[in-house]
Please model this.
Amino acid sequence: MNGSHLLIVLSSIMTTACISDLYSKPIAKRNVDISTISEEYVKATRGGILDFTAAIPGKVYHPRDGYIAYERFWCLDEEKGSVDDYQLLINEVCELKGGDMRGSWCSDKQSQRALFSATIEQNQTTCTGGYNTTIIHTLEPISSSIASEWIAASEMLGYER
Model:
């Protein structure tokens, strides 16, 4: 390998290693969907040099059933964030949307409809570098929490009024 190839390889590795430092943790916002906030959280707290999971789509749209599912597993750098930090963020978003958290579900205070669901777990395995493997899973309506498809899907997925 000549010098220029080595320089390109080393600069690529360094860029990848520092990529999560380019992101800051999201703040709670009322008008941002929960999957986007979760995706921003993952990017800001990622540990390790390479993230092969970034190539896998995290958002899956279910238009017939009226919901978006987001799931991502990643290596959580606990110097950048934690399970508790994420849960506090989700609680803030739920309050801004006029809801209360009941387990993993954010429930509208007035109508008792499901606004979204969000969970975060660590599965007791570690990534290269010693970071904990962490999983986020969210569910939310594509259009509105009053859409009949979302109401049926949320109840099928475990929401109880």
About this structure: The two ends are 63 Å apart (CA to CA).
